[in-house]
């Protein structure tokens, strides 16, 4: 995912929410809170991580930064960071 | 908030009666349990304790009469057993109100019910599941074992009592158990318990508590759903029914 731009990351992330959780696209706004607005719980987060890993072909599980993610925007930012790290930009 | 004298009267009357009856009933049931225990297997003893909890609950939910009336509506003609009962959660009295159900069951609860004087004591022996203190793997294993013994499971997947009439989001643990054990899910709507008492309050307000047991959702109907979709599917059913009840 190192070559992905921000827009692609957002699109792919939203696709995961739509395909895995059947959450409608209108709800997927950057400020949407993953727990309270989208209704995921800690167990669903495990499913989300698995789906994101598969979609982006990255390893997220075990990364301590994941626990700080609250909103979709946080998630986009995090995946962008991961992408930069994978491409060797940082 | 200004409390009406009538509510003060009902509250002052209810708690001494509740505590006295709880003490007497628990002493009688404990004595009976001690006498019977040597003649029972572990499984029979658990069944006995769950029956005692049901008896205690049936007594407690009648204590508020005539100020608190319980109306139980069973919309399910099938009565599948074992099954997983899914209820909305509005009050500390909700676990007691579940005594309207019949058959052997355990409840999935937070830590606080285990701290209640009588209820907590029996809940521990009855094998009630403290969702806060066990891992999901352990919860699924224990839940599957109970269901295989024909013990139904009652849960409040909001996890905490709602402070408004709006239901909170559901946690998925109960639905993961349903998918793993392939048993029917029976939604239950509770209305009126928010007055007996509300979260953060001790005031008992005269009210009618409605318990509506909805038709079971069979495994065939939900087997292809993800835990996330299933929990929201059941939540929507309860939510729509509560709106109709309101």
The global form of chain B is globular
Strand content of chain A: under 5%
Spans of chain B of 5+ residues with little confidence (pLDDT < 50)?
Answer: none
Computed structural class of chain B: alpha/beta
* Shape label of chain A: globular
Q: What is the distance, rounded to the nearest whole angstrom, between the alpha carbons of the first and last residues of chain A?
A: 14 Å
Fraction of residues in H or I helices of chain A: 40-55%
Order of helices and strands of chain B: HHEEHEHEHEHEEHH
The separation of the N and C termini of chain B measures 23 Å
Structural class category of chain A: mainly alpha
- Provide the helix percentage of chain B: 40-55%
Sheet-strand content of chain B, in percent, reads: 5-15%
The low-confidence parts of chain A are: none
At CATH level 3, the topology of chain B is Glycerol-3-phosphate (1)-acyltransferase
Biggest contact:
A-B, 11 and 13 residues
In total, how many beta strands of chain A?
0
Task: Summarize model confidence as the mean pLDDT of chain B.
Answer: 90
Q: Which CATH architecture of chain A would you pick?
A: Orthogonal Bundle
Label the CATH architecture of chain B.
3-Layer(aba) Sandwich
Q: What would you report as the Rg of chain A, rounded to the nearest angstrom?
A: 12 Å
Number of domains of chain A: 1
Describe the model.
In chain A, 52% of the residues lie in helices and 0% in strands. Chain A is globular and about 30 Å long. In chain A, helix 1 (6-21) crosses helix 2 (42-56). Chain A has a single domain, classed as Non-ribosomal Peptide Synthetase Peptidyl Carrier Protein, Chain A (Orthogonal Bundle). By secondary structure, chain A is mainly alpha-helical. Chain B has 246 residues and is of the alpha/beta class. Chain B has a single domain (5-245), classed as Glycerol-3-phosphate (1)-acyltransferase (3-Layer(aba) Sandwich). Chain B is 46% helix and 15% strand. Chain B has eight helices and seven strands. Chain B has a seven-stranded mixed β-sheet with strand order 1-7-6-2-5-3-4, sandwiched between helices. In chain B, helix 6 (173-181) packs across helix 8 (227-245). The longest helix of chain B has 32 residues, at 5-36. The radius of gyration of chain B is 18 Å and the shape is globular. The mean pLDDT of chain B is 90. Chains A and B meet through helix 2 of A and helix 8 of B.
